Amino acid sequence: MPTVWNAVDFVTTDSTRTALVQRSYGVAATVKPDGRWNNAGANPVCVTVRPAKVLGSVLVILVLGLAARPRSHPPGDDADPSAGLSSQATVPAPVMSTVRRACFDCHSNETRWPWYSKMPLASWLVERDVTAGRGQINFSNWARYNAFDRADMLDKVCDVAFSRRMPPRPYRMLHSEARLSDTDVAELCAWSRQEAARLMENKS
Ligand code: HEC
């Protein structure tokens, strides 16, 4: 049966010569089309490459490598509890509890890491959210923001809660406790407006 050269994928080398290797779908690669192997009187080097197998091995190695990676989530950068929102401002208990359950996972150093955040890929997604969220607002570092920044953040907090932009939808789907009721939003906004106004008056 003549060899059908449907694709030449790469060139391989043994100690003495180079052969073209054909992607094989069960048919072993044989001789070069120019027939040089036959002239040399040597057996052709037959290499069977199964792309699916190679890809599978690469994936297994990748996943094992990721899983074996030592797990450490990005730590909060400030362990001082007195820098947190509740120490820096007077927050009504229901508002504090709303923010804690709906926002703290991504906007504080008190992230409750879910079990899947230890898994490859998922860990990457979760950590990315937490890092980006903390970068925008970190309620644990409230002391670090000046009055103007705080007022600006409070304004946005009400805004994104009211429009349900936050918490992000995928997170809401996984964390039913983080869904905001109309009452939650009303209380949050009433407080954040009042606190923002107070900050701009006192510049404290
Ligand atoms: C799953 C993680 C997560 C949760 C939970 C979460 N956020 Fe965010 N938040 C983010 C990320 C990521 C960003 C930055 C990217 C963006 O703006 O979408 C962000 C950005 C923000 C911003 C800045 C938006 C802007 O336009 O400047 C505000 C304000 C905010 N979040 C408020 C909240 C509030 C309030 C809650 C709780 C009711 C909350 N977030 C819950 C992840 C989260």
Walk me through the structure.
This protein has helices at 36-40, 51-68, 85-88, 93-102, 104-107, 122-136, 147-162, 169-174, 182-202, and strands spanning 8-13, 18-22. With 204 residues, it is mainly alpha-helical. A two-stranded antiparallel ribbon has the order 1-2. The structure holds heme C (HEC). The site of heme C has 18 residues, from α5, α6 and α7.
Annotation keywords:
204 residues; 9 helices; two-stranded antiparallel ribbon; mainly alpha; elongated; single chain; binds heme C; 2 strands
Any idea what the shape is?
elongated
- The count of domains is 2
Which percent range describes the beta-strand content?
A: 5-15%
Largest sheet: 2 strands, antiparallel
Overall mean confidence score, pLDDT? 81
The radius of gyration over CA amounts to 30 Å
Number of helices in the DSSP assignment? 9
From the N-terminal CA to the C-terminal CA, the straight-line distance is: 88 Å
Bound molecules: heme C
| Number of beta strands | 2
Sheet with most strands: strand arrangement: 1-2
Percent helix range: 40-55%
Which secondary-structure class do the elements indicate? mainly alpha
Quick structural gist:
Helices cover 49% and strands 5% of the residues.
